[in-house]
## 1
Amino acid sequence: MENCLFCKIAEKKIPSTIVYEDEELLAFKDIHPHAPVHLLVIPKTHIGTLSDCSAGHAPLLGKMLALAPRLADEHGVAVAYDEDGAPQRGYKTVINSGPDGGQEIYHLHLHVIGGPHPWRHER
Ligand code: AMP
Ligand code: ZN
């Protein structure tokens, strides 16, 4: 898609700090992080928004979501349980959709946001 920032990032025409890549997906660091860990997972193919997806996109969407815990683990924010079984650490997975959903870039992306508190710049 011409003039799509994230298509250009996927094509490596614009630099980004890539943390994961396969045939279908790219994950990179958000340029304006809202927390110590702020990653974006995108499909390499252009999809404008979650509302452009239907049941046929379920495998791709599932892959995007399933990547989040792996990235969280690699960046030290995966949920772990202490000796009493209480959950520790953690992260948010967010997809903003449309203007009322706070979407600024119209290429589907999943935010993975986490890190040690205090941080309160939640979207
Ligand atoms: P959203 O509001 O859900 O559309 O989020 C768009 C995100 O893209 C924001 O968190 C921006 O900081 C991020 N962003 C914009 N330009 C870039 C870029 N060149 N590289 C990495 N992240 C970017
Ligand atoms: Zn695009």
## 2
Amino acid sequence: MSFENLLIENLGAVRRITVNRPDKLNALNAQTLGELTRAFEQAGEDESVRVVILRGAGEKAFVAGADISELATVTPVQARDFARRGQHTMATIERLGKPVIAQIGGYALGGGMELALACHLRIASEKARLGQPEINLGVIPGFGGTQRLLRVTGRGVALELCLTGVQIDAARAYELNLVNRVVAPEELEAATLALAEQLAASAPEALRSTLDAVITGGEADLSTGLDYEAQAFSTCAATEDMREGTRAFLERRKAVFSGR
Ligand code: COA
């Protein structure tokens, strides 16, 4: 399937999805949101894909938000539908069952920050700028930002970012737990790919179970979350990869995971 606003590449078991509207700083219009949902559904269904990298085209931006030219004229009903559509895209990413890494080379603002927050890991360039500037447009984050940001940073920081619309740099984003790593701009692509390849060599069911236990189990109370974890642990024990991983350790060799 071809996409107008996305570039799709396969780098071994890593699928790289690039939002490709650099002249609009990769802003998410309705079409791009729909394409992202479809691209992630495809990545989820394709067994040859173990890990996904999401990035923006060009030097300046990951994604500079929802497309303001589309937002400007929406009715309340259209705004609700737009938010729901964006939330669906973010949920498709978050619940993919395969690790998704956001490669943040520049601006990740508004819907761009929400998109990064829906990914499981975030690597930022020293040049990245993050923020939820929707308040400056008279609206609030509508693609899950108020909820995921709250869960990552806690209430005080989430409120500070959403109430003031302040743009923060990568170092501050790291301090606030918003990104996992910050690297020099020229190292960003290689560092992201190296992490993706490391994950792609792991047992897929163990990756899936980890994501599921942390994301789904983490939304429940502790005892339900622990039940969830025990069940996910048991699921891993049903795989050949678990036998391979434990046997390889005992035989002092590197495990080769088959995905079975
Ligand atoms: N929606 C639609 N278009 C956007 C956009 C967005 N969220 N962000 C940037 N663009 C467009 C600009 O309109 C401009 O298009 P044009 O060349 O056709 O006029 C182009 O991208 C380049 O942006 P520009 O503003 O000229 O770049 P800059 O370097 O001066 O500023 C930003 C960069 C990111 C600070 C600025 O673009 C910005 O504030 N964007 C909006 C961020 C935002 O509020 N996001 C939340 C939306 S809910």
## 3
Amino acid sequence: MIWNREFESMPREDILQMQIERLQSTLNRAYKNVPYYKKLFDKHDIIPEEVNSFEDLRKIPFTTKATLRENYPYGMFAVPLREVVRIHSSSGTTGKPTVVGYTRNDLKHWSELMARVLAMAGVGKDDTVQIAFDYGLFTGGFGFHYGAELIGASVVPTSLAAPEKQIHIMRDYKTTTLVCSPSFALSIADKLRELAINPNELTLRVGIFGSEPWSEKIRAAIQSAFYIEAYDTYGLSEIMGPGVASECEKKNGLHLFEDHYIPEIINPDTGEVLPMGETGELVLTTITKEAVPMIRYRTGDITSIVDAPCACQRTCVRLSRINNRTDDVIIIHGVKILPAQIGAVLSMVEHTQPHYQLHIQREGGMDALQIHVEIAESVNIDEVKTLMRIQSDIKQRIFAELGIHVDVKLVEPKTLQGKGGKIQRVIDKRSN
Ligand code: DLL
């Protein structure tokens, strides 16, 4: 099912022409309204009207997460707040979260893109769509919500209700479509088995999953647990939220909505733009966003792009599955954190050394993070009360700062260093 045939199946030369036209107006608006971009363009002699090709675009320096942080909260906005009708922020809190805003037009585009995502998975107005992404500052819940309403589906906004509740609702309300992170889908699948509910008792037929890396193995596990077709969907708050790229029924790459974004793949070390088909870091430029236009934003996600025609008749390019990042962001149940953020929290805790190691595994379908922390030499390892106090202090602080529940294991000094005194910071035992 193609939601917007005109734009999704446009001849490639028309897409490319439209991208350049929309790019120019985006650059113009950014230059006039965002002091950061004005300074940047002036410094590099970029004149928006003279950017007439993709080669010209390549002369503009990248925008990074650091740029956004430096301009926190509203410095990258290209419209006054009075024109902003919604604000979200990134789920990870690297010191300062990234704040993103939407004008009324941006929300209209977002809903349209989410309608395309749902239609690509064969979801239509006769479906009942259960949205089990967080509704809040995270873009997942609200993003899907408005798209599902636009296609006329019946929307059940369960947000992050516990797996058992999700199951009761999907059974009683006759949900046909489940939307959530793949790891949450696995937790729901585990509960289904625990409750000995036969998937045939449910009316589910489709699932759309994203916001974290997953694999064909996880796809197979989800499909066989619920008897559904599972689709991959990709996006990031800085660019839009969900609604950047998504799988069609061919499940052969994620179609990127090129009437709204220009993609490039670069070598993450040199910044050089790579030819079609090569693997590197995805860089995106928004070409319709009004509130917060992003020019050459480095996503940190490693993928490749192909422009070969797809049997579904959509003409926009496809991204390969996203499994790696250029930074060491770890994603625990959809929440993005950098190991250094954990380090920063630990440095506030008394009686610990600045040595820690993160152990991630999947327990009963749920991502679980255990932090091994070296205690200070001065602490008596046999003093159970002190150890328990340190442990609970760490857990509470991490929850307060990063919003995740962790397990903490205290270890003796100098036990985490491996050969050469180096600590392997992350040990990820989740098999993708
Ligand atoms: O995760 C937006 C989203 C919501 C996408 C719901 C899909 C569904 P952020 O919290 O800003 O936004 O995180 C964006 O998550 O740069 C990727 O590293 C990762 N990511 C998102 N989707 C996928 C996916 C949302 N399908 C970051 N596969 C991105 C792999 C994904 N990684």
## 4
Amino acid sequence: MKLLHVVGARPNFPKLAPVHRAGCAAGASQVVVHTGQHYDDDMSGRFIRDLGIPSPDINLAVGSDTHAVQTARIMERIEPVLIAQRPDWVVVYGDVNSTMAAAVVASKLGIRVAHVEAGLRSFDRTMPEEINRIVTDRLADLLLTPSRDASAQLRAEGEPEDEIEFVGNVMIDSLFHALPAARATRFREKIGVNGSAVVVTLHRPSNVDDPGRIRALAAALNEAALEREVVFPTHPRTRLRLEEAGLRMDRVHMLEPVGYLEMLDLVERAFAVVTDSGGLQEETTALGVPCLTVRSNTERPITISQGTNRLVPHPGDIATELRRVRRPTDRPRPEGWDGHAGERVIAALMQRT
Ligand code: UD1
């Protein structure tokens, strides 16, 4: 079985790692294509090293641009690669532009597409990721879902039963695999975090691209920092927007983007996480760390119904909500978030090859 994995942006790498590992163990022939959607070492190379993924075989070096230009560039550059490689499956991950672009090109070439993390829906088409999810799922030949509700959603959309397979959450495979190495970084101690801090990540255009919204978020984090240490590794998009708006958060411990292992060390022992990231909603649920998601919706409702997540749509409510959070005493974990999802992905692919 020959697999061609397509990744491009930071959240793709922890999803690829366990599938690639399981593919190696099963003797699959594997090619990794990096689109170059993310290119800074902080957003890409460091994650690949932290996760033990082999260096990508091919890098399309598309870089940043508008959605249309970036997507078009990926499509243009990946087409000859797929023609030359002719894999049994193109495996795409998550909901970034690279995911959708590769799915469109592979489908038109008649190469089967498997989508890892299929069936998630925020029902909010102002999110570019929602469009990427819908297009990718419509085209994919195998829909590998992280939760039963995602499988149910795909059925409701009319996807054939034999194309849907519940495999569980590959992100959580990476999390369990990396925890010992994450703890060994002693990153928290290195940056002088003493008590249990609030860890913040924000990068969604809906939060950071609107000057009024980012101002309200900065004020909320400054307020929270009066009561508890707040640590904020900043995505490049967010840093740029903060600079443009002339915003400073003097009380907040601002960091450059951190690696996968360092982030895990911060998050595992956090008092709470404040985020708009999809991955962190899942990771906090698996670790039993309270999570406040600064959005009005989530494509991962299981992190609310069976996890530690709570939606906080208004930045002005963050400080109050932080005063209310409690660490759960037991750690409920959704079905299939057990560290073996990557193996189930490979089994599903082999069964159909
Ligand atoms: C992308 C994904 C988003 C994911 C996020 C994780 C889409 C539509 N969005 O958003 O779903 O949650 O990645 O990070 O695919 N930049 C750098 N260096 C880099 C990459 C980006 O400086 O290595 C800067 C550039 O100014 C760029 C901006 O960040 O314009 C945004 O990058 P882009 O990949 O367009 O979107 P993200 O916000 O990262």
